[in-house]
Every structure is written in C-alpha cells, then in structure tokens.
Amino acid sequence: MLMSWKTEPADGEETWEDIERELGALRERLRHSWTWYQRRREALIGRPDARVDLRRLETLWQRALAGFLAEIEALNRRIDAHNRALTSQGDPWPRLDLTSELSRLGIGESEPGAVGERLETPSPVPPISEESPAEVALHRIITLREKIPHTPRWEQARKRALWRYLARVQSQRREDPS
Length: 178
Hints:
Layout: H1 16-44, H2 51-85, H3 98-104, H4 133-144, H5 152-175
C-alpha cells in the first residue's frame, strides 16, 4: 500500500487520498487486462492458425499498457503540480514509478508485453517481414475492422477481401508445405 500522506485540503484542492483512489482503480483495470491477456494467450499458443489472433491480442495488451502508462504520467503531473505549489509546511508527495507499479501487479519484465523496453517488447508472433504479403493484408483487414465504423456494405467488402486473401494464403501453403 502507498504511504498515506496526510494534508489538510483547501476547498477544491486535491488530496493524496484522491491520487491513491485513482491509482487503485488504474491498478485494478490493468490487473484485469493482464489476467484476460494471459488466459487468452495461453489458449492461442500452440494453435497453428492463431497467428493473426495472437498479433491482435498483443496489440490489445500494448494498448492497455500504453493507457496505464499515460494515466500514471498524468498522475505524476498532478503530483508535480502539487509539489510545486507546496509551501514549506507540507511534505512533498512521492512520484509514481511505472516499473514498481507493474511489479506490484505481478507483471514482470520477462513476461510478454512488459514495459522493460518502453512498450517495445518482442512479440510472441514472428515479425511481419517473415509473413507473406497476403498474410499481412489479412492482418490489416481484421485489425481495421475494429478501428472504423462498419456499414453493411463495408462488411460485405471485408468478407470478400478476407475470402480472397485466405484462399491465397491456403494455396501458398499447399504449394510450399515447409
């Protein structure tokens, strides 16, 4: 648990308890995302047809991690603002450390998706350069589906494109079984 910094707030002034409350909510959301990510990844590992799903899952985890990092940085800015406005009477609030927050949640640097290299960890999926252009296009089609609104006409076009690229990938695998 974080140290309790007792201060007497003025009207509308932030207290350390406010920071702790927000930090607790952030930790709980990231803990939930981490648990979901691990369970889903374990289910997908070992399946030869799960390459796109693994890549999508890794992207979702990196997005959750980046959101947590942004929120920690926002809390640190608020802490810095409080410390700058502090008179000689109060104690400064400690800044939050991302690495210690992740280790507190049990997300180690050896785990997939950890923040040891600033959100640039090796993916459990082979890099794009090893995939065929059809597989790259297939990945983009699937991931774009979640980024843009989809009309019925767009969904039909997406299904046609998926069918075309899946057929191409399957024919390539039949020709080159290695």
